Amino acid sequence: MRAKPRGESLSMTGERYRRLWLPRARRGDARAQCNVGASYEFDRPRDGRRAEYWYRKSAEQGGVEAQERLGELLSDTFPGRRGAVRESVKWFRLAAEAGARHAQLCLGFAYFYGEGVRRDRGAALKWYRRAAEQGHEGAMFNLAQMYRRGEGVRQSWPRAISWYRRAARKKHPGAQHWLGRVYGGQEDLPVDHHLAVKWLKLAAAQGDTQSQCDLGVCFHQGDGVRKDLKRAVEMYRAAADQGDTWAMHLLSWCYRDGDRVRRNKSMARYWRRKSGRREKDGQELRK
Fold it and tell me: What is the pTM (predicted TM-score) of this model?
């Protein structure tokens, strides 16, 4: 997040903000250049090319935040431009080596997927770990995923769970969801339904659709929580409204069977067709 000048309202318009910083930016002030670039990137009217221009000015003077932002702009806004993704790695590396944790995450991502650089899972692990050690929850989650799948490291559930927990405590919804899966018995590990529900509730409250759906199943079956078909339907609907096809399918069952909703064959067909699944899919969940 860019720094606003002291005493200025956060509601300041983009035009006013730029007018405040442009004189200093034109005189070569690296911080001002980065702030002007951020204003062009995020404030209306937006202008990606001007944002790039000012970020580059600051980055070339060693501005670490500008290097990080320029890397993201090149990889996200101009990915089709020839050489843009490769150049983004250059700026991520400079910022990462200076200790910027988000740049370290981005550099790890580039190495993991081979975007702008040759794929190297060992290098990805190194940069994820550096960002995680600085408290970046996204890097913690990525490390957990690598240990879970054994990508670039020896597969280890204990280490995966340790990193999931660290990320989950920092409110990472993906990590909270995976702890819900682990404790809910979906991964052939010791089951603790109460812990599963705890983590699924936290992730669901952040809008994670898979967690909303899984939490609905817990309420539907009474796993780790008192059986409550009304809450189950609420969770299925919340996930379905965000496009989760499995939640749509489960919601179709509720309308088919009259589970805390009025039995309605038309609505059952509507949700089943929208889900793209067959009616019998997942029937074992109801046994």
Answer: 0.89
